[in-house]
Amino acid sequence: MKITIRHPLVFGLCAVAVALVARQAASPVAEAREPSNASIRSNLARQDQDPQAYVQYLANAGVLVVNGNTKIAFDPIFRSSFGSYLLLSDELERNLFAGTAPFDGLDAVFISHYHGDHFSARDVMRLMAAHADLELFAPAQAVEALHAVARSNKDQDSSAVFERVRTITLDYEQAPVAIETDSLLVEAVRIPHSGWPERMQNVENIAFRVSLTGADDSIVTAAHLGDADTRDEHYDHDADYWAKRPLNLALPPYWYLQSEDGRAILSNRLKPALTMGLHVPVKFSAKDKAAVTSDRVGVMTQPLERRSLQ
C-alpha cells in the first residue's frame, strides 16, 4: 500500500508501563452482551439492502464506516465495560477475527486512545496478525502497549505487524497531521480526554478525521472524537483545520449532545451532515435518547444498526 505523508508525522513511542497490558488483561468483562446472536444474524442478513455509504454500530465507541469497497473500524475490540458499557458480542468478535461480515474487506483500524473500554492490546495484536493487509492507526501509548505484548510473546515474530502500524505522536496543541493511502486520507489531532485539566492530562486522545474514497471516486469524511473534552478552546486554535473539510459524519461521545459546549462545537466547528453519539451507557434511558435525537442527530446503541451517509 502506498503511503504519502502530507504533513510531518513523528513516528515514535511514548514510555508507558508494561503494567498497562496486564491491567487490560485483568479488566472485568461485561456480564451482558446485547442483543442476542439471533438478532445479530438477522441484521447481517439485511445488510445488502442498505446504501453503499454508511456508519454501522459495533459496541460502545466502536463503529464501522463504509464507502463502497472502502471500510474502516474505530475502537472495535476492547475488554473493559466498567459496568456501564456494551462489549462486542461473542458472534461479532468471532466475525472480526475471521474477517467475515460485517468485517469482510476491512482496510484499517483506528484506536482513539489506550483505555480498556476502547482498546485491548492483546486482541489488536491478534487481529493484526490474522489479517496481513490490515493497517492500524493508533496513538503512541497504545502502540507501546502493543510492543509490550510482542515482548511477552518472545516465540513469535511481530515485525510484520509493526510494519503496518502507524504511530500517531502528538502533543496537545501540536498542529494536526495527515497521512494519505490509496483509499484513505487520515488526519489526526490531539483533543484532551474528558475531565481535562483536572485529570486525564497525560492521555493521548486522538480525534481522527478520515476521508474514504469509494470505487466510484466518491468521498465520505468522518470524524471520531474518542473521549474528547467539550471545551471549545481545544478546537479554536485549529479552527482552520476543522473548517477546511466538510464532514459527512461526526462521531462524538454522547456527552457532546448533552452539553451546551459540546453542541456548540458540533454546530459551529465540525458542522457535520450527520452526528451520531457513541459511548452510550447501557442504562441510557429512552427519555435520555429522545432528548438528544433529531433528524440528523442521535446516538447509536444497538449493535449493527446503520445510518446512511448518502
Give an overview of the whole structure.
Helix 4 links the parallel strand 5 and strand 6. By secondary structure, the chain is of the alpha/beta class. The strands form two sheets. It has an eight-stranded mixed β-sheet. It has a seven-stranded mixed β-sheet with strand order 7-6-5-4-3-2-15. The longest helix is centred in the middle third of the chain and has 13 residues. The N terminus is likely disordered.
Structural class: alpha/beta
Question: For this structure, what is the CATH class?
Answer: Alpha Beta
Helix content: 25-40%
Using the alpha-carbon principal axes, give the shape.
Answer: globular
SSE pattern, N- to C-terminal: EHHEEEHEHEHHEEEEEHHEHHEHEE
Task: Provide the number of structural domains.
Answer: 1
CA-CA gap between termini: 27 Å
Total helix count? 11
Low-confidence stretches: 1-33
What's the CATH H-level homologous superfamily?
Ribonuclease Z/Hydroxyacylglutathione hydrolase-like
CATH fold naming: Metallo-beta-lactamase, Chain A
Key terms:
alpha/beta; 26% helix; Metallo-beta-lactamase, Chain A; disordered N terminus; 310 residues
Summarize it.
By secondary structure, the chain is an alpha/beta fold. The protein has helices at 19-25, 37-45, 90-98, 121-130, 140-152, 159-162, 233-236, 239-243, 255-258, 260-270, 286-291; strands spanning 4-5, 53-59, 62-67, 70-74, 108-110, 135-139, 165-168, 177-180, 184-190, 206-213, 219-224, 249-251, 274-277, 297-299, 306-308.
